[in-house]
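Annex B. Sample input.
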Amino acid sequence: MFVVGLTGGIGSGKSTVADLFAARDVPLVDTDLIAHRITAPHGIAMPQIAAEFGNAFVATDGSLDRARMRSLVFSDDAARKRLENITHPLIRAETEREQHEATGPYVIVVVPLLVESGTWKNRVNRVLAVDCSVETQISRVMNRNGFSREQVLAIIARQATREARLAAADDVIVNDNAPLDALVAQVDAQHRAYLSLARA
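Annex B, continued. Sample output.
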């Protein structure tokens, strides 16, 4: 099946764009949702996480203590790699399973860290980046999550630069505070292009 990798920095509007494709009957595979599912209460990643990091990182309901893990991996790159060594293979396996089960003209895989991962570009037919200015990202995330400007900048600093993301993209949707109908028009144009490529 023809596969489109959808990516974008935090606050770029990936979810809005993904929802617009879903409204056009395009199946979505969301790697963030898979990551949450495998670290939910008694998720398949939890036994390995408990063994690697200790029960202090397991919440009382059996899920990952996200706040504690976030503060650890933000300050410790080695810990982040240990976590990724557990979660990434499981996310990849679940992603591939969902792709194979998808029915539709093509499938969109939502991968926030597509550029950063290094391997994703070889696993999709096209990369679609949702782009906006860094200032737009900051204001959206501050309003949505209640984070400080410094917290948002710290997250952005750990992601690929806007320039790197655009360089990796085959296609770009601009979502810099444009009206919704302008965003819809861009999605419709990409949808038509992907239908044509998928049929070819």
